[in-house]
Amino acid sequence: MTPAPAPQPARGIAGWPYGRLILLAWAVVAVILIAGRWQSILTVSMIDPDDHMRLVQVRDWLAGQGWFDVSQHRLYPPHGGDMHWSRFVDMPIAGVILLLRPLLGGAQAEIAALIAVPLGILLLAMNFVARAGRRLLGPEGGILAALLVATSPYLLAQFAPLRIDHHSWQIAMAGLALLALLDDDPRRSGIVAGIAAAFWTHISIEGLPYLALIGALLALRYLLDRREGARLVAYLIAAAAASIAFFAATKLPAAWGAVRCDSMSAPYLLPLAIAAATVAAGSRLPAMEGAVQRLALLGVAGAVGAAALALSGPACLGGPFEALDPLVHRFWYQNVREGLPLWDQPSYLAVGSLWPSLVGMIGAWIGWRSAETPEAARRWTTFAVMFGGAFLLSVLVYRGQGVAHLYATIGSAALLTVLLRRLANLRFAAARVPLTVLAIALPSPIPAGSAMARIELDDAERTMLQPAFDGKECLSEAGLSQIAARPAATLFAPIDVGPSMLMYTQHSVIAGGYHRNNDAMREVIRSFTGSARDAEAIVRASGATYVAYCRRLPEIQLYLAASPKGFMADLEGGRAPAWLRPVPVTNSPDLRVWQVAPPIS
């Protein structure tokens, strides 16, 4: 009997294994990212306050803070800062540090982790999008989609070295969910999509609309074809089971019943589990042969789930930010640009953000129109629903651009495949070469955004968009070194600089830009926008030893504009009150520090 031939690796282009092609595409994008961030890598200049805070969290965990305790004890002492973050995001960062610390030392191991982890998540995302693109476009189209990640500045920013917050994980899970939904095996498809959605929502509640979107898509497919019930049931059960498992693995039993609207907790887990059980049981009934019966079943599951949410967590019906103090909402939340809808962004930024999605939508339409089989049409329809949902969410919340732009790479690859094939048939190189370059650049938002900026802004406004000071010098290890040399104390500082001060010093701070830090943020805002006399009472009550801030940061400008005669205006005008004693700082011209004098008895 002749033995069966050994399985061969999936071939991609020119006989290369597809996995090797994906690695090559990833290496190209990784080199672009490292080159673009090289100076920041050398100076460890992180992109966002959340990146600073993430590293502080990892350091504290490695120093002995418990797995279940993700609070930040140096935030708002002695109360501590309650955080909603997941330890799962900390794990790869901590793992790389532990692995390399014996070889490189602590500081260099940290830098290695700050480079390796975001690039590793980039590899995951590019692998998922390449394989999803292959199912829609073939090998060449999948690799092209992966390479088009490099055309989106928003995507590049989320996977850049030193960018260690959770946004990259969300984008990667979006890619895995899409890949799973395009799988022909219904149970495997549902299970993988369910686990991806569960992990997505566990690391950020921002994944909840996508979990619902996938459920609605699979419910519609089941409504139209009973055979799709296996995919829907597998998805719901996997999403519920994985969500419960992730929750139990990161929360102490005493906290299992707590109502937390900003993270996966009982008010979300209970409806998900009930809906999954209802559909799983009902779909097995013989009466489900008819579409009307299936619609009734889905309606019952949805109604029971909604009732469970309303009863177990009525506060969550208004969203996770309903409890914010009005002052915090005005000065902090409304000025977090990534959390605002697209229509509240400058026009040039909105156009630049929309462009990749619009190009991708044209390609998705071309792909759907050119589908040669019913199965291919179903795949393109699935992709269109996911892409359309991501696009809508990116309009409602700006940080949703990451998922929308990832999906847009597949649509753009479909469009470019058609354009490049037609351009290849042009006889004259003088026309073919420049048109090919223009076609490849088509998905990039930079030309459209730049053109809109030229139309919308005058020279003075364009200059304002590129300020000479961005806080990096002041909020760096070198800039904070003199205050870091002082004995551990508590700093009363603006909200946005808190995480940097936690990372580069051993001091505590009163506030950081985290919504569970609501009370502390309110006190900081009240002090800097109120009178110096009122600020004294707030600062002394906080137990702070120092008042410190970096000049010219946007937050400072907000306080000055809101209260031209307030405490911050006094500090900026050189009129520090008598209860503050200046602390000389010579290595950072924009850092201002005062010591709180003892109260006069």
TrEMBL record:
This protein's UniProt keywords: Membrane, Transmembrane, Transmembrane helix
Listed transmembrane segments: 18-36, 111-130, 142-160, 191-220, 232-254, 266-283, 295-321, 348-368, 380-398, 404-424
Keyword Cytoplasm annotated: no
Keyword Ion transport: no
Entry protein name: Uncharacterized protein
